[in-house]
């Protein structure tokens, strides 16, 4: 029976070869115009965050290597949801006309339909193939038997895999223009993050001590704007910068206090019995004053002082404190701009990780479909065991790459969560689709000038130079005299335990001026002046260095923006070409005129093309974010646009 099946296949192939000798170009055009239904995605749950991506490779390998014989034919274990839509790939590929579906219960119908391609007498349903009865020994030709895996449009439900590699909380991104949509739906953002538990605990010293306190219990989708708002509110580095700014404001108030006089009040209370009184009491006559009696004293002093002239120290300290406050204020601005860039890049990294999951799952689907085709052709007797092994290896490799992509996704989520300082038990995912963020409207020269005018790093160096100059004047003030005024008012009351002792109250005041001039300090003031002069030179050098660095950042981001914008268009065209190439490679392989290697190469090219497009879009968005950061304070210059 197996020999007869081979003879039947050779007869059909020979007839079709005769009919297509003069129609090679028409057949190729027909192959280009053929349309295939997209490969169905691997069955997953509605919520991809809690679903598990399993590994069907072991079970499929077991089916391919250890089939159970049934009537001399391999029995595939893949379920076909619509067997009536199965088509014969051999006839479809060899004929310039569309493929003719095989009737489920009529064995010879494909041969009679193939007679429409070329009128070849030997290939008739009732001629050479007459012994083939529909229910006889040619059971593998039945649509629900051996030919079941060989399909072009049937929806295959793959066998559930056995090696769990769960995506703990992954949310695929929405559809990218020009890129095939991801099968699972993205969970919608039903609530604003402000209404959820995304703010950290108010106690900064709190840390988890039990496993359930750090176990991830939910996944919150966030848009980029929501992530930026959370970062501005919760990021610890930015909070530290704000606290340093508040501290510098207090330093300014401390320096300004030197412009006012100081008023102090001092009071003393004492009881005194002197040793000399005991000696005097021993020689005093009876009935007279007792020199040994204790004396009680109460005194109070009100002192007013003012530094009339400080040699320039007071004004220099105030100027230095104000410049230090400005430095910390610019540091808050710099960290805010850098935080915006870091959060944006972390968000784009999360989007890229989600897209990698989607693309890797599509690659797994493509590899699974190629494996099914190779197994079906081997079962039909027109394929080779080598092609099946190649498909199995490709399928296993794609599963491994998918597992690696899952790990990268989890890392990207936790990186964004750390940047936003959300609670320990919340995980994040991206809610925005992967799309072009906008277009930069300014030319390069205007962008460079704006960066010079607005970058906080440049102003920081200028302010630091002014700060060092104020500290230099403060060091020089040590050589100058200082004049201060003071006024004291004193009140004194004394009493004695001796009834004959003196008791009374008195007051007085003091007015004066004090001059202090340090004539020689061993060179300390001169050394401090030299230190500050060196710091001034350092600030000037840092300004020049930062100016050149700012220009380089603007130019680099601008050049990357232009190149990635062009790459988006190129990658979109390459993606469509890769899809068409894979479709034709599958048709050639199913028709027996191509190899499994061509299909694998086409699948690899398609995966690479999808990666290139996603990386081009996200690379453009990253370059745009870096350019906004290089300009600082001008994110509104990027307007929404698409290539």
UniProtKB/TrEMBL annotation:
Gene Ontology MF terms: efflux transmembrane transporter activity; porin activity
Coiled coil: 313-419
Region feature Disordered, mapped onto this chain: 161-208, 263-299
Record's signal peptide: none
Compartments where located: Cell outer membrane
Biased composition (Low complexity): 275-284
Chief location of this protein within or outside the cell: membrane
Keywords per UniProt: Cell outer membrane, Coiled coil, Membrane, Transmembrane, Transmembrane beta strand, Transport
Bias kind Polar residues: ranges: 263-274
Listed InterPro entries: OMP_efflux, TolC-like
A Pfam family reported for this protein in Swiss-Prot or TrEMBL: OEP
Entry GO CC: cell outer membrane; efflux pump complex
Family: Belongs to the outer membrane factor (OMF) (TC 1.B.17) family.
Name used for this protein in its record: Transporter
Lineage: Bacteria, Bacillati, Cyanobacteriota, Cyanophyceae, Desertifilales
């Amino acid at each position: 029976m197996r020999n007869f099946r081979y003879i039947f296949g050779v007869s059909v192939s020979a007839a079709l070869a005769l009919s297509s000798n003069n129609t090679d170009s028409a057949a190729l055009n027909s192959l280009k115009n053929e349309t295939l239904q997209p490969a169905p995605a691997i069955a997953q749950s509605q919520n991809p965050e809690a679903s598990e991506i399993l590994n069907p490779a072991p079970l499929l390998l077991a089916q391919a290597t250890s089939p159970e014989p049934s009537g001399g034919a391999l029995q595939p274990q893949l379920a076909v949801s619509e067997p009536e839509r199965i088509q014969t790939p051999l006839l479809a590929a060899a004929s310039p006309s569309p493929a003719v579906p095989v009737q489920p219960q009529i064995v010879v119908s494909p041969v009679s339909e193939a007679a429409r391609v070329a009128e070849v007498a030997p290939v008739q349903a009732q001629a050479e193939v007459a012994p083939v009865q529909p229910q006889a020994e040619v059971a593998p030709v039945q649509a629900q038997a051996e030919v079941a895996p060989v399909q072009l449009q049937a929806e295959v439900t793959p066998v559930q895999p056995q090696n769990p590699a769960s995506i703990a909380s992954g949310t695929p991104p929405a559809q990218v223009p020009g890129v095939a949509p991801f099968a699972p739906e993205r969970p919608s953002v039903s609530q604003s993050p402000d209404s959820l538990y995304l703010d950290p605990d108010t106690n900064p010293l709190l840390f988890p001590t039990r496993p359930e306190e750090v176990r991830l219990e939910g996944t919150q989708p966030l848009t980029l704007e929501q992530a930026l708002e959370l970062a501005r509110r919760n990021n610890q580095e930015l909070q530290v910068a704000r606290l340093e700014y508040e501290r510098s404001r207090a330093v300014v108030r401390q320096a300004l206090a030197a412009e006012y006089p100081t008023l102090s009040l001092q009071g003393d209370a004492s009881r005194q019995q002197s040793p000399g009184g005991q000696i005097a009491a021993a020689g005093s006559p009876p009935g007279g004053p007792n020199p040994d009696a204790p004396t009680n004293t109460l005194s109070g002093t009100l002192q007013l002082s003012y530094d009339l002239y400080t040699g320039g120290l007071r004004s220099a300290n105030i100027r230095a404190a104000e410049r230090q406050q400005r430095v910390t204020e610019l540091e808050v601005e710099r960290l805010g701009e850098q935080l915006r860039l870091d959060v944006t890049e972390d968000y784009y990294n999360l989007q890229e990780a989600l897209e990698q999951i989607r693309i890797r799952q599509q690659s797994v689907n493509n590899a699974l479909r190629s494996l099914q085709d190779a197994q079906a052709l081997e079962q039909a007797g027109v394929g080779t065991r080598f092609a099946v092994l190649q498909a199995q290896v490709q399928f296993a490799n794609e599963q491994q790459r998918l597992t690696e992509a899952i790990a990268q996704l989890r890392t990207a989520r936790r990186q964004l969560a750390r940047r936003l300082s959300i609670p320990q038990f919340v995980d994040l995912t991206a809610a925005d689709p992967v799309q072009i963020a906008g277009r930069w409207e300014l030319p390069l020269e205007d962008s460079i000038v704006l960066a010079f005018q607005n970058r906080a790093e440049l102003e920081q160096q200028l302010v630091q130079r002014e700060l060092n100059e104020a500290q230099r004047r403060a060091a020089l003030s040590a050589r100058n005299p200082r004049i201060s005024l003071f006024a004291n008012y004193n009140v004194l009351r004394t009493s004695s335990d001796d009834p004959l002792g003196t008791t009374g109250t008195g007051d007085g005041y003091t007015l004066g001026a004090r001059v202090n001039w340090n004539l020689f300090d061993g060179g300390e003031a001169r050394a401090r002046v030299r230190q500050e002069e060196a710091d001034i030179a350092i600030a000037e050098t840092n300004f020049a260095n930062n100016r050149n660095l700012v220009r380089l950042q603007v130019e680099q981001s601008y050049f990357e923006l232009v190149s990635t914008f062009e790459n988006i268009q190129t990658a979109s065209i390459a993606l469509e070409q890769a899809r068409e190439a894979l479709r034709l490679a599958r048709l050639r392989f199913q028709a027996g005129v191509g190899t499994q290697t061509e299909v694998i190469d086409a699948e690899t090219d398609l995966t690479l093309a999808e990666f290139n497009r996603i990386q081009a879009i996200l690379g453009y968005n990253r370059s745009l974010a870096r350019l906004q950061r290089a300009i600082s304070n001008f994110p509104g210059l990027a307007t929404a646009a698409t290539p």
